[in-house]
Amino acid sequence: MVAESRPAVALRCQVADASLHAYMQQHPFLTGPSEDSNRRALAALRAGIRVVEHAAPGTIERRPHQALMLTPPENAAARALLKATGMGDAELRHAELDYSWRAAPLPHDCADILCLGSGTGEELAFLRARAPAARIVVWDYVAKLRPGLAQAVQAQFVRCDLVAELRARTQPFDAVFSNHTLEHLYDPDTVLPLLWQHLRPGGLLLAGLPLDGDDSVPFHDAVGRMGRDAAKLHDIDLGIFDAGHPWKTNAADLCDTLARSGFVDVRIAQRSDAPYRSAGLAATPSRLPLPVLQAAHALTFAPARAVLRRLFRHGTPLALRRALVALERRLAFGAGRLKNGFAPDVRVCARRDG
After folding, report:
1. Contact of 177 with 116, CB cutoff 8 Å
2. Alpha-carbon 114 to chain mean position
3. Which CATH number applies to 1-280+346-354?
4. What distance in Å separates the CA atoms of residue 140 and residue 64, rounded to the nearest whole number?
5. pLDDT (tens digit per residue) in 171-212
6. Are 207 and 348 in contact (CB under 8 A)?
7. Is the pTM of this model over 0.85?
8. Which long-range contacts (CB under 8 A, 24 or more apart) does 79-87 make?
9. Cα–Cα distance, 95 to 91 (Å, whole number)
């Protein structure tokens, strides 16, 4: 079944100072140890936020989770690889739920795959199960792969700055895979054409990401207002705005950006029975419904943030910002947990023409 998304506002946070990118990823609410860096990052955001609106919505293909997964033998092969690294049964079930459907469109006969931003690397087992003969190369800013996983899946890991590496290398791949990495781009209009260049003609870009710019996301309207009046962005707003996800895209914006970068056959898929990454597939959800969580936020953190903004017009003391962020991270109705928990989780496929 194919359903249209509603029109939404996308945001780009184009931070020209590349030295701030890693800092903002480590400290997305600008509560890091250097107040000078926090202030510089806030100034860069104020100068670099761009609002992108589309007259027509994009389209998202919504299908049940089981219809989007790898085959049972492929899932079994991936589980065996992960189990060999010491992963327990509960972790195995979670990994299959999260990664199997993301790897499913990958062609079996890929000669080589570039994986961007692997984190602990569970997705590599599913890539290997799908393309058993492929050479897998992994790039990431930090080395966080599970011990033994690179050896188990026979992947080559390179610790590097992703954008710098894309600029420096020219070797093409049959497929580029990323999972929850594209939303961290500070300039997708530059990086996506670089990814296009790293694909052979007919090669596949396959990525999982949240649609932070979809108008179903909590605080979408508030973030849109902040973007339109970026000069007034306050440091206490970063708990809602989240500088760690600088590309707050939606279906229309994602399709348009990929098309302008040279990609064709762009398709966005979402699991109809698990639309959010944290939703799971339990018959009875264990968490409170979104309206209840939003009401709890409106009665607690929203007024606290408003008071701090009034008391500290030129910047909230770091200790208070840290305390608020720490408390929000602990509670289900904190801004970051609400936004990340209820942003539509999608899989996008696109090809280099040729």
Report:
1. yes
2. 17
3. 3.40.50.150
4. 31
5. 899 999 999 999 999 999 999 999 999 999 999 999 999 999
6. yes
7. yes
8. 79/125, 81/125, 81/128, 81/129, 81/149, 81/152, 81/153, 82/122, 82/125, 82/146, 82/149, 82/152, 84/148, 84/152, 85/146, 85/147, 85/148, 85/149, 85/152, 86/146, 86/147, 86/148, 87/122, 87/146
9. 6
